[in-house]
Amino acid sequence: MVSAEVRLGELGVELPPPPVPLGAYVEAVRSGNLLFLSGTLPLELGVPKFVGRLGDSMNLEQGRLACRLAILNALSLARAHLGSLDAVTRIVRSTVSLATTHDFALHAKVADAASELLMNLFGPEKMPTRMVYGVSSLPAGVCAAVELILEVGA
Amino acid sequence: MVSAEVRLGELGVELPPPPVPLGAYVEAVRSGNLLFLSGTLPLELGVPKFVGRLGDSMNLEQGRLACRLAILNALSLARAHLGSLDAVTRIVRSTVSLATTHDFALHAKVADAASELLMNLFGPEKMPTRMVYGVSSLPAGVCAAVELILEVGA
Amino acid sequence: MVSAEVRLGELGVELPPPPVPLGAYVEAVRSGNLLFLSGTLPLELGVPKFVGRLGDSMNLEQGRLACRLAILNALSLARAHLGSLDAVTRIVRSTVSLATTHDFALHAKVADAASELLMNLFGPEKMPTRMVYGVSSLPAGVCAAVELILEVGA
CA Rg, chain A, in Å? Predict the structure, then answer.
């Protein structure tokens, strides 16, 4: 079984500090074996990056970097809550929201940046389902946000 | 432990009648300890209010009132299904959708109107995770909608 | 109790082949008694149909056909994963995303095409909660996508 914590080290990936709520909510709630995480943005040391829209001011590569950064923020949150990413038995659900123009259609390519990182860290056995939306706008004007539901314990 | 039912009285907040489905679906489904609610709109006696878009025909304060009204409709639904809001052991997830222009960025401030009401009624121990989207349009043209997943019993 | 498999035959509805992932994710994850499905598009033999936006290049009837086709893809996925649709004890959640102009407001009428099919196949006892969003864009440019959370076993 792959250890996501070991893989992080092997890949030289460093997690950002866990995001703090932008309002009156919490970042993680566990109910039974499911851990729900709040939506995470592409924050670098707490500062929103990749502000703009795909198909307009943001290109494919920027979108991919934004997804990758958003998922790193989500994983940082998960680690802060669970102590270790190795407590995750399965990633159940990933929802990727992209701020896009109405004629953008490369959602899968952009969202794959988040999914591929999960694959590299957790291995194929823990891969989640996925939904990708092209939305009108996201908090702080960023072009990507991610939501995860994780399974922990059994 | 805070009683949401007592708090409603203390705050003088009255719940609207529980919304009825606008189509071929149901308003609440319980599975295990989770109660999933359908998305709720800012309905006043069943009539959609706050029709428009944030960043355009709807301002920040209208958006906040719309969120507050939508969450009151959700709580009315929860009470209708559970008998009492005090059966809620945790609010697991809140999803706030706002109809916005593409350059709107004040999602957190608007969604906080819903989150703050939950905080005032349920207390900090039951606060949910949150995701806020800026969407293109919502049913009936309203500027805000809310979805809740609640934990009930254990 | 209604058998969805029997009903499919009675209604002469044929399920399309189960969709395959467009990226680095999986199509179904079971955790406890919940089966999460990835978002499904209106695919015909794997080809995206109903490309466009409601309120613009797609009309109400096309939106309804797109929803119906997307939900058939979701059911095909569920059957591929579970062996039979009769393993579904409840449809817990349906999320319908529609690519729309910002002044579109007939979400409920469009989404009902998916909900009515579920009703016809599974009967009123298994009907899900629902949320409908009008989004800016969807993967591959389609005008509708569907996500289901199913309950299986007890």
Answer: 15
Report yes or no: B6 at the C interface, CB cutoff 8 Å. Answer: no
The residues, ordered by sequence, that sit 6+ positions from A42 with a Cβ below 8 Å of its Cβ are A48, A49, A50, A65, A66, A67, A69, A70, A73, A142, A143, A144, A145
Chain B contact set for C112 (CB, 8 A): 23-24
d(CA C86, CA C9): 13
Domains defined along chain C, listed by start: 4-152 (3.30.1330.40)
Give this prediction's pTM: 0.97
Does residue B129 belong to the interface with chain A, where contact is any CB pair within 8 Å?
Answer: yes
How far away is chain C from the Cα of A136, in angstroms, using its nearest Cα? 5
Q: Is A107 on the interface with C (CB under 8 A)?
A: yes
pLDDT per residue as tens digits for the range B14-58: 999 999 998 889 999 999 999 999 999 999 999 999 999 999 999
Question: How does the average pLDDT of chain A come out, rounded?
Answer: 96
Does pLDDT of B154 surpass 70? Answer: no
Least CA distance to B130: which residue of chain A? A38
Task: Nearest chain C residue to B20 by CA: give it.
Answer: C129
Task: Quote the pLDDT of residue C153.
Answer: 85
Compare CB distances from A100 to C26, C97, C136 and report the shortest one's residue: C136
To test the contact with chain C by mutation, choose from A131, A146, A147 the residue with the greatest count of C C-beta atoms within 10 A, namely A131
Q: Answer yes or no: is pLDDT of A130 > 80.
A: yes
Average pLDDT on B83-107 reads: 97
Q: Which long-range contacts (CB under 8 A, 24 or more apart) does B17-23 make?
A: B17/B45, B17/B46, B17/B76, B18/B73, B18/B76, B18/B77, B18/B79, B18/B80, B19/B43, B19/B46, B19/B73, B19/B76, B19/B77, B20/B46, B21/C130, B22/B139, B22/B140, B22/C108, B23/C108, B23/C109, B23/C111, B23/C112, B23/C115, B23/C130
Averaged pLDDT, A67-71: 98
